[in-house]
Amino acid sequence: MENKRELFQVLTRRFGLLNKNCCSVGTVDISLVQSHILYEIDKQITPSMQQIAETIAMDITTFSRQIQTLIKMDLVKKTPSAADKRVYLLSLTVQGKFVATTIDVSMNEYLEEVFSHMNEFEKETVIRSIKLLNQAMSKSSVCCTPLI
Amino acid sequence: MENKRELFQVLTRRFGLLNKNCCSVGTVDISLVQSHILYEIDKQITPSMQQIAETIAMDITTFSRQIQTLIKMDLVKKTPSAADKRVYLLSLTVQGKFVATTIDVSMNEYLEEVFSHMNEFEKETVIRSIKLLNQAMSKSSVCCTPLI
DNA sequence: ATATATTACTTGCAAAATACAATTAATGAG
DNA sequence: CTCATTAATTGTATTTTGCAAGTAATATAT
């Protein structure tokens, strides 16, 4: 049988490496987590702080400070919710949108390049496999209880 | 067409989450990077500091300090190389080996559980796909130059 | 062989990231 | 109206990080 962990370890390390080095856009330099935050704000529709923090599994206090930094960098905007005054809705500024988009384009370009080493059939198989994996993982129950 | 980045982002986030929460073995609590370090020391044969640091793409100074911590925790051993006195060879202590093995077993159990949601054919397809991906990524050249 | 460069690793900082506890303010439930 | 809950922030302390500068050993060049 295969050592599945080995395969995943290598895969995620490579992908992590990619992410890591790809976060400077022009004069703007952001960290990996910050790029994840931008990505999620861009993806969700007027999310609250809690929502994003939960999605990327980040402690809310750390997240709060990261958002403060991103606001100072003029990449993120925080708007008080009309419906619930405790809540702040997050959105990207024009510059934030630009940064997020640039990173996204470049990531997809990189992935295209990776996939260019495969034939059409392999490409489709791989894509379908990742979808399968994502589904299987979301179904899984045994996640992350402390060992022993 | 697919949004490949989206697929990868979800996949690696899930896998990262898994890794994150699965690093306490008995009374020993280690961080994600520390578990990666143990994993690589276990895998390679008497590696040097440089070798491991490079494999997991970690700054050597940060790595040096992490090793100091792991030695204090009695998980890692540092032996001066006879061939080159600048070099230290890394190995796991008995306890370190136990921790690494326990984490590995549990990770593979989790992955088995994930794969249990697929049929035999899907399993094989997915495994083959990840191998393909890893190969393609290692072939790729366009990694990680700063954008714009 | 001897000076010089390179390599492996360590320490001195200073900045950034993290998370627990406690706080403020707003909302919901009884 | 009161009390519990929720969203978000701040206080504080720890950990992680990485550049710059250092030490010691090896390799290279003259």
Account of the protein in words:
Two copies of one chain form a homodimer. Chain A has a single domain (25-134), classed as Arc Repressor Mutant, subunit A. The first copy, chain A, is built from six helices and four strands. Helices cover 62% and strands 9% of the residues of chain A. A two-stranded antiparallel ribbon of chain A has the order 1-2. By secondary structure, chain A is mainly α. The model of chain A is unreliable at 144-148 (pLDDT under 50). The first copy, chain A, is globular, with a radius of gyration of 18 Å. The two termini of chain A are 25 Å apart. The interface between A and B is large, with 66 and 66 residues. The first copy, chain A, binds a DNA duplex (30 and 30 nucleotides) through residues 31, 33, 48-50, 58-66, 68-69, 84-88. Chains A, B: Residues 4-135 form the HTH marR-type domain. Chains A, B: This is DNA-binding transcriptional regulator, MarR family. Chains A, B: Keywords: DNA-binding, Transcription, Transcription regulation.
Q: How are the elements arranged and paired?
A:
The structure is a homodimer of 148-residue chains.
Chain A: H1 4-21, E1 24-25, E2 28-29, H2 32-43, H3 49-55, H4 60-72, E3 76-80, E4 88-92, H5 94-115, H6 120-139
Antiparallel strand pairs in A: 1-2, 3-4
The structure holds a DNA duplex (30 and 30 nucleotides).
Organism (chains A, B): Psychrobacillus psychrotolerans
InterPro entries (chains A, B): HTH_MarR-typ, WH-like_DNA-bd_sf, WH_DNA-bd_sf
GO molecular function (chains A, B): DNA binding; DNA-binding transcription factor activity
